[in-house]
Amino acid sequence: MAPLRGDGARTIEIRKQKRADLVAEELKRLITQKNLRPGDKLPREIALQQMFSVSKSTIREALKSLEVQGLVSVSTGPSGGGTIVEVQLDRTFQLMQNYLFFKDIGIADIYTARKLLEPELAAGAVPHLTEEDFAALERTIDQCDPASAAAIDPLNQRQEDLSFHDILAAANPNPMLRFCCELINEMIRHLVVFGNDTPTCEHERFGAANVKFHKKILAAARDRDAEKVRTLMLSHMEECTRYVTRMNGKINGRLVLDSEMPRRARSGRAG
């Protein structure tokens, strides 16, 4: 830290950036300028050393920094180096949760956001849903429907309830809306808990209510009725809020571990 004397007696501290941090910034600039995409490779280590006039250890530290951020995958060996990768939602969720861990976030905050975003997300997905998407939506409903032979246990049913919404998100072409809704789904999936005193019958009623709405939303989506899907989804989110509140749902405020973030498919869509 180098002190800089400002007006009066106030001292401003200026942090001198590490050389590896500066190289990492330049590599980000390089990725942007060359419009590199997932799968593209950065120049080899020796070329990067010459490009930035730094040591091998500095280059490796810079690449490690980008790897931690989820921007590159680093391999070793003669042909090793950095490969551009798509930042995973799981990693983004962890970073977001690190931030929210120190905030006072309640269940009402999450469901307020859901009520605003999910209806628009679902309506926007309708024109883009494929037969493969419809089949995936039907599978999630079957696995959550107590009347179906394919029904799974109640705990996993809540995961499948969210998968229904993930499938709609994957079909929506708006990347910002899709990201926000998938992020909220991840928060619910990993952080929302219910008290041990919540009767099993309440969980069963909640599940049955979700199935009922999901069937109506699927039918409207098959009819390509985006406006009806929007209206149904808003009612669905309002009902979910009432159930979760009545069941004393809470945010389990904690940091999420790497081991809790397995890679999984979010929809029937490839990629």
From TrEMBL:
What SUPFAM superfamilies does the database record attribute to this sequence? Answer: GntR ligand-binding domain-like (SSF48008), Winged helix' DNA-binding domain (SSF46785)
Q: Which PROSITE patterns match?
A: HTH_GNTR
> Could you tell me which CDD domains the record lists for this protein?
WHTH_GntR
Identify this protein by name.
FadR/GntR family transcriptional regulator
Keywords on this record? DNA-binding, Transcription, Transcription regulation
Q: Boundaries of each HTH gntR-type domain copy?
A: 17-88
A Pfam family this protein belongs to? GntR
